[in-house]
Amino acid sequence: MLQATVTAGPSLVETAARQPLLSVDKVTLRYKTPSLLVTATEAVSFDVCQSDRFVLLGPSGCGKSTLLKAVGGYMKPAAGTITINGRQVSKPGPDRMMVFQEFDQLMPWKTVLQNVMFPLLAARKLSQKEAEEIARSYIEKVKLTRALDSFPHTLSGGMKQRVAIARGMAMQPDILLMDEPFAALDALTRRQMQDELLQLWEDTKFTVIFVTHSIAEAIKISNRILLLSPHPGRVKAEVINADAASTEDGSAAALEKEIHNLLFSEPGHRE
Ligand SMILES: Nc1ncnc2c1ncn2[C@@H]1O[C@H](COP(=O)(O)OP(=O)(O)OP(=O)(O)O)[C@@H](O)[C@H]1O
Ligand SMILES: [Mg+2]
């Protein structure tokens, strides 16, 4: 197994010194169907620290969504452990909120405001007024105040994803889990949403695990990138991306090439 650590800037020591918020330790994840046993990931380990923009990057079928489901507590590892704040993850909880790729993750019979308020009312002991106040502030952060009373079917794909992000962030989870949240958007909207996510991060410094199979998106969003090999997913390398989104001196292009080579190198080519 290739276990390279590629650094794209000077922050390696700084990152290594921080305490992990989430630890994924030698996690193997399997699906049992009546006819076969599918191993989705094999002994995957990584740590996520406070305020990391941690990207899981790898080809289709390498187990990115499965890993996110396990961190979310929707799936138990066949081997290995997942701990958050030192406690083993065994079920879903409000400390981990998910944002999915699909536009239909909102409740169609509820307005934008009601969608964002829903988990706040369900999971936290808040009054209607308190929940509304928090929901409104996060809807404002994703620039959707004018659509407060709109129903999901009247919104564009990008607007729906903003609502899903506001709903996740309003819960102030320890970690926001995002599974290819911008993959179904057109290229321009996708770029705009990436910029907005980074602005939101500047604002609140939340911790996020972001799944993508776009190398360019991974470089733009992340401070750290875990590269996974094809099915079953194993850790190929970790990239510390200190110069996130820097394109002026061509460093993003160089990093993109390096990541491409790492992702598609055969085991044993680079030790
Ligand atoms: N419910 C399931 N039952 C059986 N096998 C599954 C199930 N869900 C996923 N798998 C298998 O597990 C492996 C990992 O799937 P997963 O969806 O995690 O990949 P992924 O990296 O998210 O891919 P993509 O980039 O296409 O979303 C694949 O081989 C897939 O076929
Ligand atoms: Mg997936």
Order of helices and strands: EHEEEHEEEHHHEHEHEEH
Bound molecules: adenosine-5'-triphosphate, magnesium ion
Given the structure, what is the number of helices? 8
Q: Remind me, CATH topology of the largest domain?
A: Rossmann fold
CATH class category of the largest domain: Alpha Beta
Segments where pLDDT lies below 50 for 5+ residues? 9-13
| Strand adjacency order, main sheet | 1-11-10-4-9-8-7
By secondary-structure content and strand pairing, the structural class works out as alpha/beta
Arithmetic mean of pLDDT: 90
Number of domains: 2
Intertermini distance: 8 Å
Q: Which architecture of the largest domain would the CATH scheme give at its second level?
A: 3-Layer(aba) Sandwich
The best one-word shape is globular
Estimate the helix proportion, in percent.
25-40%
- How large is the share of residues in beta strands? 25-35%
Give me the oligomer status. single chain
- Relevant CATH superfamily of the largest domain: P-loop containing nucleotide triphosphate hydrolases
Overall number of strands: 11
Structure in words:
- There is one protein chain.
- By secondary structure, the chain is of the alpha/beta class.
- The chain has 2 domains: 5-95 and 174-264, P-loop containing nucleotide triphosphate hydrolases (Rossmann fold); 106-172, no CATH class.
- Helices cover 35% and strands 25% of the residues.
- It contains 8 helices and 11 strands.
- Strand 10 (224-228) and strand 11 form a beta hairpin.
- Helix 3 (112-123) runs parallel beside helix 5, helix 4 (128-141) packs across helix 5 and helix 7 crosses helix 8 (251-264).
- The model is unreliable at 9-13 (pLDDT under 50).
- Bound molecules: adenosine-5'-triphosphate and magnesium ion.
